[in-house]
Automatic annotation (TrEMBL):
Gene3D superfamilies with a match to the protein in the record: Periplasmic binding protein-like II
Subcellular location, principal: other
Keyword list, A-Z: Signal
Protein name stated in the entry: Transporter substrate-binding domain-containing protein
Entry keyword Signal: yes
The UniProt record lists the keyword Cell cycle: no
SUPFAM superfamilies: Periplasmic binding protein-like II
Pfam families the UniProt entry points to: SBP_bac_3
Subcellular location: Cell envelope
InterPro entries, sorted: SBP_3_CS, Solute-binding_3/MltF_N
Domain of life the protein comes from: Bacteria
The family this protein is said to belong to: Belongs to the bacterial solute-binding protein 3 family.
PANTHER family for the chain: ARGININE-BINDING EXTRACELLULAR PROTEIN ARTP (PTHR35936:SF17), MEMBRANE-BOUND LYTIC MUREIN TRANSGLYCOSYLASE F (PTHR35936)
Length: 259
């Protein structure tokens, strides 16, 4: 009787453990910034929203798993992934060789380019390093645009900010002469009321050293199976039109081609 009771207890414990493990495996924790509209941001009622969030939800739906979104400051977004705070970063991150030293990337889910933005009344048209000598140029810290400015504009004052919104505010307020940023958030901002002061300047920045191979999801290098599943889900939502539907909710051009 005692042996039977012990066996029953062990079986029950095993079933509970399997159920618990199964439940955990069916929830994907997605890290995002929450401060990069229209890709990821908080709504007035405190909910994460944006293109990245909707893509994440679509991927989870295709994989038939639950999503849990976790907000993380940009400066710590890769360290938090490596520490196990979440399973994948979905935050409009450029796929660069430098980042590949730390993480694996999915297939691109956006094309990538950067642009300068200046005040409409500044008269700035030439944004070459020589023309921008002595000027103050802003960018979000720990980004590829920050790396680009620090490397290519040694004679300008490069001012770095914790969030993109902070850069935008200082440009609109006249505290900096220009900023460099990702093409789509910059386009979205200058078309908004807050960014109506400003316009794009110069040619698109497409140097692969800084814009990489597009925008991808970042994962820990050991999570090879999850990477395969996410790539397949991305392929599926592009093929079935889900990606385009989400794209068209936020943008007037196709993010896969920037056309």
């Amino acid at each position: 009787m005692a042996k039977a009771k012990l066996l029953s207890t062990l079986l029950a414990s095993g079933i509970a453990l399997l159920a618990s493990t199964g439940a955990a495996a069916e929830t994907l924790k997605i890290g995002t910034e929450g401060a990069y509209p229209p890709f990821n941001y908080y709504t007035a009622d405190g909910q994460l929203a944006g293109f990245d969030i909707e893509i994440g939800k679509a991927l989870c739906a295709n994989m038939k798993i639950e999503c849990e979104f976790v907000a993380q400051d940009w400066d710590g977004i890769i360290p938090a992934l490596l520490a196990g705070k979440y399973d994948v970063i979905l935050a409009s991150m450029f796929i660069t060789d430098e980042r590949k030293k730390q993480v694996s990337f999915s297939a691109p889910y956006q094309a990538s380019a950067m642009t300068f933005v200046v005040d409409k009344n500044s008269g700035i048209k030439d944004v070459s390093p020589a023309a921008m000598k002595g000027m103050i140029i802003g960018a979000q810290s720990s980004t590829t645009q920050a790396e680009y400015l620090l490397a290519q504009y040694p004679d300008s004052e490069i001012r770095l900010y914790p969030t993109q919104d902070a850069v935008n505010l200082d440009l609109a307020s006249g505290r900096i002469d220009a900023q460099a940023g990702d093409i789509m958030p910059m386009t979205d901002w200058i078309n908004s009321e807050d960014g109506s002061c400003c316009q794009k300047a110069g040619n698109l920045i497409t140097d692969r050293t800084y814009v990489g191979d597009g925008v991808g999801m970042a994962l820990r290098k050991e999570d090879e199976e999850l990477l395969k599943r996410l790539n397949q889900a991305l392929e599926n939502i592009i093929a079935d039109g889900t990606y385009k539907k989400i794209n068209d909710e936020f943008f007037s051009i196709n993010l896969l081609t920037l056309q």
